UniProtKB/TrEMBL annotation:
Pfam families: BORCS7
Major site of localization recorded for this protein: membrane
Protein name as annotated: BLOC-1-related complex subunit 7
PANTHER family in the cross-refs: BLOC-1-RELATED COMPLEX SUBUNIT 7, BLOC-1-RELATED COMPLEX SUBUNIT 7 BORSC7
GO CC annotation, single: BORC complex
Alphabetically ordered keywords of this record: Lysosome, Membrane
Lineage: Eukaryota, Metazoa, Chordata, Craniata, Vertebrata
Natural source organism: Pomatostomus ruficeps
Amino acid sequence: GRGNMAAGGAADAQARFGHSVKGLLTEKVTSCGTDVIALTKQVLKGSRSAELLGQAARNMVMQEDAILHSEDSLRKMAIITTHLQYQQEAIQKNVERSSNLQDQLSHLLK
């Protein structure tokens, strides 16, 4: 009857081993599922940040264009200002000349 007991004990141990293997597998599958979910979330977050980065890059390009356009406008305005200053100086000289002429005329007419 001793061999029978040993066989029974072995079967018992095997059953216990089987249970623990099943338990481990279930645990692994569960944690693996959790990992997959976490990874999926991470990937989605990553694609979202890539999207945001792309948007930021596009915005920067637009701003750069706007800045360049503004620079161009400022340059043109500076040129116009310079021209206006020249014209103003010319007008002032003409005014001075004409007032000189008026003085001379008034002296002549006295």
